[in-house]
């Protein structure tokens, strides 16, 4: 059996996604059978129903640089004594991120890579954690992203009745929940990259997301679900979902801590995130 474009479109309609902005996280393997046209068919089906598609198109660790001694906040989810193995991969002369660089971490998956290959793609201005979009509202969504407002596109999507669509993946992939962490009072961890003018700047990033499936009891009731082949699609209304996640975290900040009790990223994030020493930017 092969999954057809008609099946994809029917499912998009079943989930009431037409004409909306949709943040997509997908595992094509989850379908269990081949999708006629692959990731591009999924993108085309959404676009054919008037959707704008937003995806994380992160470049990191590409473009990351070693933090200068004056830009090392405490409680930042990083062990500064272990830097050489972690982020010290780029030299002083390496290239800077640009919105048309086409670099993407292969771990983001095939769907973001295919979206980024499209001629009309728009991409946000964040050297490590950029978002990319295609469709009618693409420019508006990605314009909300800056190095110090990493999840601006998610906020814009949520404010416009957008949805978050998980195709065969779980809540640990729902990047938008990092915005809920921020709204629940946590500062986001910072990392370091070179601005277009060559200066090293601190940029917002997301902490550990492995514990997000623990939010399932609060978020699952908000989702509409459908099946395509072996793949479960779950469409979450972004604004309501983020609000429910904020409420859960505000009641108990430890709710998002992952199963690794020694996880530095979770420990520091749950405690409130980075402290000092320099402002972002
Ligand atoms: Zn963790």
Short description:
With 281 residues, this protein is of the alpha/beta class.
Features:
two-stranded parallel sheet; 10 helices; 11 strands; globular; alpha/beta; binds zinc ion; 281 residues; seven-stranded mixed sheet
Can you put this structure into words, describing what you see?
The protein is of the alpha/beta class. It has one domain (about 1-270). Helix content is about 30%, strand content about 15%. The protein contains 10 helices and 11 strands. The longest helix is centred in the last third of the chain and has 14 residues, at about 240-250. It starts with a strand and ends in an 11-residue tail after the last helix.
The biggest beta sheet is recorded as: 7 strands, mixed
Global structural class: alpha/beta
Count of DSSP E strands?
11
What radius of gyration results from the CA coordinates?
A: 19 Å
Helical content band: 25-40%
Q: Bound compounds, please?
A: zinc ion
Number of helices: 10
Number of domains: 1
Q: What would the principal axes of the Cα set say about the shape?
A: globular
**Helix/strand order, N-terminal first:** EHEEHEHHEEHHEHEEHEEHH
Low-confidence stretches: none
Oligomeric category: single chain
DSSP strand (E) fraction?
Answer: 15-25%
Query: How far apart are the first and last residues' alpha carbons, in Å?
Result: 52 Å
Strand line-up of the largest beta sheet: 5-6-4-2-7-11-10
pLDDT average, as an integer?
A: 93
């Amino acid at each position: 059996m092969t999954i057809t474009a008609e099946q994809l479109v029917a499912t998009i309609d079943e989930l009431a996604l037409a004409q909306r902005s949709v943040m997509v996280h997908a595992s094509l393997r989850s379908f269990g059978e081949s999708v006629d046209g692959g990731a591009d068919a999924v993108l085309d089906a959404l676009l054919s129903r008037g959707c704008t598609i937003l995806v994380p198109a992160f470049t990191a660790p590409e473009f990351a640089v070693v933090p200068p001694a004056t830009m090392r906040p405490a409680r930042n989810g990083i062990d500064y004594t272990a830097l050489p193995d972690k982020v010290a991969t780029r030299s002083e002369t390496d290239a800077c991120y640009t919105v048309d660089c086409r670099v993407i971490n292969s771990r983001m998956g095939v769907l973001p890579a295919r979206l980024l290959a499209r001629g009309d793609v728009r991409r946000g201005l964040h050297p490590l954690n950029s978002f990319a979009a295609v469709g009618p509202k693409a420019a508006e969504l990605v314009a909300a992203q800056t190095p110090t407002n990493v999840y601006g596109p998610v906020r814009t999507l949520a404010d416009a009745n957008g949805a978050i669509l998980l195709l065969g993946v779980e809540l640990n992939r729902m990047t938008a929940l990092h915005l809920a962490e921020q709204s629940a009072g946590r500062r986001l961890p910072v990392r370091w990259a070179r601005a277009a003018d060559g200066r090293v700047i601190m940029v917002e990033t997301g902490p550990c997301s492995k514990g997000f499936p623990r939010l399932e009891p609060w978020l699952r009731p908000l989702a509409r679900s459908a099946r395509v082949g072996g793949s479960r699609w779950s469409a979450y209304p972004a604004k309501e979902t983020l609000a429910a996640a904020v409420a859960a975290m505000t009641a108990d900040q430890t709710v998002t801590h992952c199963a690794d009790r020694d996880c530095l990223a979770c420990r520091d994030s749950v405690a409130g995130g980075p402290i000092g020493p320099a402002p972002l930017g």
